[in-house]
Structure formats: C-alpha cells, structure tokens
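Reopening this one. Same input as before:
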Amino acid sequence: MNGRLLNVNRFEMWANLREFDDGLRLRLSLADWQQLNFADDQRVRVRVQGQSRVWLRVATVRELPPNVLVTLTNRVEHVPE
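Same output, byte for byte:
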C-alpha cells in the first residue's frame, strides 16, 4: 500500500491504498473514517489523484484503531431469490 491523495464524496484525504481490477483497499485514519460516516454497501464517488472518478460500494470495514481498513468494490453481489 502506498500513500495517495483521495477524494471520496468530495472529502479529500491521504490514504494508503491498493488498487485491484474491481476496486480499492484503503487504510484510513479512524478520524477520517468517522468523518465520512459511511454504511456497509453504501455507494460512494471516489477519485484517486490523477485518475477518473468512479462509483464504488463499501464492501468491508475493519476498525483497527488508530486505523480503519476499508474495501471498496464495483462488484454487486447477486442475492438469489
């Protein structure tokens, strides 16, 4: 993971991130995460510095104070009926 400037729903922050084909894995400060106030499966607008803006969903959140590990993905899980 490397530190990059990130814009999430118009909130700018520095985050350690790793990019994948289907999204991002972030390590944020707990303070930044609490300020974002996102819920599981919430759709968020994300722009990594130097890249286009994309829509991703909050897939997993793991709080490890003073940090938070967040996975954002563009996959939509199909729930069978």
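So the earlier flakiness isn't reproducible anymore. For the record, The domain at 2-73 is CATH 2.40.10 (Thrombin, subunit H).
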